[in-house]
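writing this on my phone so excuse typos. first protein, seq and then structure
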Amino acid sequence: MAANRIKIAKDKVELVKALVASKDTTGSFNTYVEVMVFAAALGAKYKKRVLLEGIAKDLSPLRQDYFTSSFALLINLLAITEIKDIKVLGDDEVADEQRIHIFEEYANGGLEILQNELHGAVDYSERLLLILSSERFKQEREEEEFDLSKFLNLK
């Protein structure tokens, strides 16, 4: 059975390349895999799945074995959450394709969010830190708020 590869959308390839540190850029991530996992998590958080319109030709699809066990766990969690059937975790070609497809769409959705958030930014690392900080503070504010309405018997 040939291993499926994780594809990157043609319209997001420049963003993905810019997010990875290289001799030409000071990206925030060390590998393309890390970018895709971050993007997929972001897409899942905002429930944003976007079909891949075209596949990047100048960036090879990522082999599944590049994904560490913790990254592969995210792929499985996204699939089981989306499909709600344990069969999606099966060790067959169809289940594997389904998991990869779901992951790619969430990653593409997350990359779309990043594209909008990072538009016009000079330093992507700084902007990413601001995004993460604002999320953290948003969660802290939500935890601090105490909602009395759940104790009221309103109908």
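second protein below, same order as before
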Amino acid sequence: MAQLATPASPVVSQPVPEVSLTPSPGTTLALGRGAYEGTLDISAHYAGLAAVEQTTIDRYLLGITEVPSSWPDESLAAQAVAARTYLAWTLFRGRSINGNRYDYDICASQYCQVYRGPGGAAEPWASALAKTSEEVLFYEDRPAQALYSSSAGRRTRSVQDIWGGSGVPYLEAVDSPESDYTPYRRWELEVTADQFRRVFARGGYSFGDRISNVSLRSPGEGNGREYVAVQTELGVTSIPATRFRAVFNVYGPDLYPGLMPAARPTGGRWPQTVLSYSFAVSYAPPQPSPHPMLPPSDSGSSGNLTVVGEGWGHGVGMSQWGAMAMASSGASYEEILDLYYGLEPQSGAGSLPETVRVGLLVEQPAITVSADGPFVLSAPGFDSVELPAGEWVFRRSGEGLRIVGPGGSGYDSPLFRPLRWQPL
């Protein structure tokens, strides 16, 4: 006879392909690290569930959390123009592959712009948005691709040197006056040849048994992408600098969590294993055997790879720490934008729609939403129903999703049915 157990939440739904959660005035819907005020659409897909918020442009910009609100006002104003411009460029360009698949215009992570909802927005950031209201950077009558990253070190990077292509004048390398401010002025990673080989084997690279040299090959600033050349008895393997960084960042911490990311001189660890594309590499080969009668395999070391770099992020466009440094020295936001982009803010009235769809999560087996007040839930084939505050869990089920609500029954909708017992 099967044992029976009372589930933690006795109310669930039958599967539906998608649901919409519209918060009542004053209600926010917490999801992950963010709290959102717009309509939240949760849908089922082959790879899992997706959560997308539809909100106004102003509320979206208010919810961007790219830099501390304690930074100087002019640096916040420069960030506001860059963020608004990047949004305008993204919408002008059109949706990405994932955007088309999951029905959103822009993602909420560092791969687009970090967005966590407007609820926690500080007054200085709101003031920066108001001060630069509707201002956008244009190039050839189109929104510019106003890229930015945390820290560039001494000099930003030309876009063609990172991702290839022909480049554009407003994304060329410039000196960044941030060395006295940025905590990322210098970072270092040292690994053995065996550790290096193992990490890159996870990334699909095979170097052979004996690494003789590792070097950075660059065609020169503005002339295209850099490569890391690994020389072994099998020949030379060329790894794009972008791939070199990605392999270390993805597989290094998994294989060697005590080593990667490396320790910071001031304590703690760096946020990533290889922080930027502005780095140099050097390789010290194995030392000869300490005894002439011992075989070469019994050498005194296995060889060491050292990566020394500066900055954090891709380094293209505006450096956020550079903007902070310039503002601290009295520069205006227009001067900051002129240094990094060579463009002047203009009125962007009419270049942005009223609303935007933001991809919060994709490809999730389950999504938990905590409502701090009532909200209206809608699902295809059912009348809308107002639901109370509490924690609501959405789980993938077959080709649709199921809803598990807070304890108790009495939700007046055929969408729900009680489930008081289930087999263990």
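The chain has two domains: 1-144+343-424, 187-309. thats all i got for now
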